[in-house]
Amino acid sequence: MCVWTTFSGTQGCIFGVLLYSVGASRKIQADALNPNDDFEALGRVCTIIDIEVNMTISGGRDNNDVTCEDKYTYSFMAGILGPYTSITETKSQPGRDGSCPVQTLHLETFEKGQVVDCWRIRDGKGDVAWWYRCGNKPHCYKIFNPEQDVKAQKSDGTSAMAAGAAAFGVGLVVMGICLLRFCCCDFRQPRPMSAVLLPRYQYAYQHPAQAPAQGVQMSVQQPGGVAVGVPQPGVPPGGVQPSVPPGGVAPGFITRV
């Protein structure tokens, strides 16, 4: 379990670093853009000639919390040049009673036949045109202010950086918790003790009633048949200890075998 948790935490950290790097790169690039230097303002010279609308609904059928979206794509003329296509503009609003109206939402910014302001990429700036949202690259005529593209790109970069930092933080916390559990719990578990082989003893016991008058004597026979006596209560100093026959066991003695 801890191994899988550590793996998930590592993946979260890696994903967080990658996402943060992408967001930082995007924000740095957006900071380097200058719409006023990159685009030439043409003024109110572009005319909307057509509007394409696509309706979408997000949310399950059993869920009343649905969102109705209209996606507008404008076709326009830049003076006598064109037609050109704009980027897709998305407008949305919550549905009612789990459904969306059959007709469009009519949330478009421009109307058909309307004359609007437009911008064109400056000569020699074609390399930066790819960083702007243009529906007609490489010409890059725009009916939306290019400053909006820079703001949107900065916002996306900041959001990606925040999400990457959050993912990295969560992954780091998960790994830290697992490491803490390993250090504090696993090392405190009892370890199996090595077996200790104790010498075997053969016991011979003489009942006190059968012992000599001078008392009961118990001894341990050492190698070579020599019995080392262990005085017991009732044995007077200098008492006589029973002898041990060779290879035998004397009553009242403990002999190791």
TrEMBL record:
The lineage of its organism: Eukaryota, Sar, Alveolata, Colpodellida, Vitrellaceae. It comes from the Eukaryota. Keywords: Membrane, Transmembrane, Transmembrane helix. This is Uncharacterized protein. The chain crosses the membrane at residues 160-184.
